[in-house]
Design brief:
Layout (H helix, E strand, L loop, with lengths): L2 E5 L4 H12 L3 E6 L10 E4 L13 E7 L5 H10 L2 E8 L27 H16 L4 E4 L2 E3 L8 H9 L4 E4 L5 E2 L1 E3 H14 L5 E3 L6 E2 H11 L6 E4 L4 H4 L12 H6 L6 H14 L9 H8 L1
Parallel strand pairs: 1-2, 1-4, 2-3, 4-5, 5-6, 6-11, 7-10, 8-13
Antiparallel strand pairs: 9-12
Helix pairs in contact: 1-5, 2-3, 4-6, 6-9
Length: 298
């Protein structure tokens, strides 16, 4: 049995990753503050990753799956606190690519500030840069928008609730903006491939090969909820006031990923899984006032 350390383990991606490998029969330790309910079949190491002292020195891990690194300090403090470990895989972000780069973004492009993501992207890049120096064999994954069961961010759940209520959906600027997604189970499958094959490349864009428009994505969400979609094209209002994504049209080249993992979960199938989880876990979602804005400002 493999022994993994998963940072986080209580919310969306880190929770799904911990649960995925625990269900595979691996020994999974989760590192978090213990302030939220833990999933079954994992062992909690309670602590703040920035103040661990010798808490991890007595453990030996086959892999560290760092899902919650957002700054250089997050990585530096964790690496310095670890005892013996094998692989290190960090989930970074496509926010490290400047929006002025040619698209699709490739792993070989120059990284730097992105005006959409601001400090989030530059902090992720600083975390990557430290990790590459401190742990040269580490793997870095750069996803677009992650989705799937355990989604607590008010993206798919927002559209699902609109669909359930029979609301017309306000589509920003004609609905042609393109977005790219990646299912959290596919993220886990790709992590498994890295651990098994140890490929020569150490930075990977990960995502579905095809981008989708806002209109197509909303339609798939309504379909998943079994509702008929009627839309209203909206202009003249701040997009983030009434819609769950930034006004940012982008996509990644995932050729490196596809060479190792040719098949990914179809978006329609993944959204149906997301909806079924949402129906049973409504209270896990962190809502934003999109509907209130629509009802009072539009």
């Amino acid at each position: 049995m493999r022994k993994f350390l998963v940072t986080g383990g209580t919310v969306f991606v880190s929770r799904f990753v911990a649960n995925y490998f625990a269900q595979k029969g691996d020994v999974v330790y989760v590192l978090n503050r213990g302030s939220k309910p833990q999933i079954p079949n994992v062992t909690l190491i309670e602590g703040d990753r920035n103040n661990l002292g010798d808490k991890l020195k007595g453990y030996e891990f086959d892999a560290v799956l760092d899902i919650t690194a957002y700054t250089r300090e997050h990585v530096e403090n964790l690496v310095n606190a670890l005892g013996k470990f094998g692989d290190y895989i960090m989930v970074s972000s496509s926010a490290v690519y400047p929006e002025t780069n040619p698209q699709p973004f490739t792993e070989d492009q120059t990284c730097g500030p992105n005006s959409i993501w601001g400090i989030y992207g530059t902090n992720k890049l600083a975390a990557e840069e430290y990790l590459r120096k401190a742990v040269p064999n580490a793997y870095i994954l750069r996803p677009p928008y992650l989705y799937g069961p355990m989604q607590s961010v008010y993206r798919e759940p927002f559209v699902f609730e609109c669909a359930e209520a029979g609301r017309k959906f306000y589509i920003p600027n004609g609905g042609n903006m393109k977005m790219q997604f990646f299912h959290v189970e596919d993220l886990c499958r790709f992590i498994e491939i890295l651990l098994e094959k140890h490929p020569a490349e150490h930075i990977y864009n990960v995502g579905n090969p095809d981008a989708v428009t806002i209109s197509d994505w909303v339609k798939l969400c309504y379909d998943a909820a079994g509702a008929e979609l009627k839309t209203i094209s909206m202009k003249g209002h701040p997009q983030r006031a009434f819609f769950c994504f930034h006004d940012y049209d982008y996509y990644l080249d995932v050729t490196r990923q596809t060479m190792l993992m040719p098949d990914v979960k179809p978006l329609a199938e993944g959204l149906k899984e997301s909806y079924e989880w949402f129906r049973q876990n409504r209270d896990a979602v962190m809502r934003r006032p999109y509907m209130e804005y629509i009802d009072t400002k539009i």
